[in-house]
Amino acid sequence: MTPPSHSPAASTSGLRDDEQPASAERTAVPGHSPARPPAAAPGGIQGEPAPPPPAKHRDAFFDNAKYLAIVLVALGHAWEPLYAGSRSAAALYIFVYAFHMPAFTVISGYFSRSFEMRRNQLQRLVTGVAVPYIVFQTAYAAFRYWAGDLPDFSVDLTDPWFLTWFLVALFLWRLTAPLWRIVRWPVPLALAIALAASVSPDLGSGLDLQRVLQFLPFFVLGMCLKPEHFRLVRRRAARIAAVPVLVAALAFAYWAVPRMNDAWFYHTDSAQHLGVPWWCGILMQLAMFGCSLVLTACFLAWVPGRRTWCTVLGAGTLYGYLLHGFLAKASRWWDWYDADWIHTPWGALAVTLLAGVIVTLLCTPPVQRALRFVMEPKMTWAFRKEPSPPPGAPQGRTA
């Protein structure tokens, strides 16, 4: 669960910074055109070397949002074993599940707006998404076999396990990005596809397509968003309005715990598999889509826009996302929750704090440096060299 969170020019995962549109970083003075320097002769103006292009900078808001969302993912997994014995824990669990992955997916779509199947983009898609998927799908299989959860060691790349589904989803969503820019009504079309998937029990489990398609509208919506939309939800009025909405949503979650099947929040099953008529599944999907969007907006409204102590951790959300899965599963297999004190209010608070601390540590720069060789490998050996342009051909793209 998800998506993003590294340099916009060097990363491809939705849990990391992606192809950040240049339009998100530039502003123009009304009534004026940006000044253009005179054309430089080879070697630079008057013999001086041409100045380097301006360095891209990270947006602290999105780094903060990704870090806070990954903390919510970890908290949700930490609360899951408390679900059956505590209505309050169950309410928090479904409240968080209503928006944490939709928020990740919207941000992933936003940073995919410039994906155009260019050579460098496809290479980063392979090294930043496909390779981590293969590595962690294999690592999880080995871990399951070692822990006794698998009778025989085997790796099935067509069947994402636990957290790796988001990498498959991101890979497939990103490949469809050019399509969503040319259709007239991208979000309604993506929503129609999600609704069709939700009432298709024969879709199968290969590549976790149910979840890939049911989360698709959030990705497409993110592609359609512009910087001003995020500025709108960060206004003071929106921040104030978000408080009663979040409180009401949490109260509704508490009420719904004994009355609602929490499987709706996972988006992994068709309506028929959940035991309801197909038309009920369509209504639920529409309701869940609307609810998730509102809560995502409320969540983003309270994300700090300035640099904070956690901003640097936003670059490591993919690390925290994939690595904390080992501890989440180990805690179930090795009965870490069997102690009676954990099922007290103070125990639940301790579990919450511990989960937040662990996932925070897993997002830190030392962990990123240690594992970058598998999470962001360069793999220059795997790609053909780009042919040199013929003499006189234009160099690069123009804005």
From TrEMBL:
Membrane among keywords: yes
Transmembrane domains' residue ranges: 90-112, 124-142, 162-180, 237-256, 276-302, 309-327, 347-367
InterPro entries, A to Z: Acyl_transf_3_dom, Nod_factor_acetyltransferase
Region (Disordered): 1-56
Pfam name, any one: Acyl_transf_3
Molecular function terms from GO: acyltransferase activity
Protein name: Acyltransferase family protein
Species of provenance: Streptomyces mooreae
